[in-house]
Amino acid sequence: xxxxxxxxxxxxxxxxxxxxxxxxxxxxxxxxxxxxxxxxxxxxxxxxxxxxxxxxxxxxxxxxxxxxxxxxxxxxxxxxxxxxxxxxxxxxxxxxxxxx
Length: 100
Known about the structure:
The protein is α+β, with helices and mostly antiparallel strands. It has helices at 19-36, 67-75, 77-89; strands at 2-10, 13-14, 17-18, 41-47, 58-64, 90-99. The strands form two sheets. Strands 4-5-1-6 form a four-stranded antiparallel beta sheet. A hairpin with a 2-residue loop joins strand 2 (13-14) and strand 3 (17-18). The longest helix has 18 residues, at 19-36.
C-alpha cells in the first residue's frame, strides 16, 4: 500500500476568491476528482481546524495499491487540472509518499 500525503498553505486571496473560499473549492474539487480516477482509494482532504501562523491550511491523504497506481493517478488528465488549480492558489506545498 502506498500513502500519498500533500499539504497546502493557501494565499490569502487568489483567483478572485478568499482563502476560505479556495479551501472549500479544493475540498469540493477533490471530491469530484475521486469520481474520475478509479485508482484513488480511501482518499480524503481536510481543512486545518487550528489555522495558526506557519501552519498549513489543508491536508490530503490518498492510498494506492502500488506505485504504478499512484503514477497513473499523478499523470491522469483530471489530476493535472486539479494540480494546476492548486498551484494558482497555494503559497506553499509539502508532500510525503511512503509504503506500508
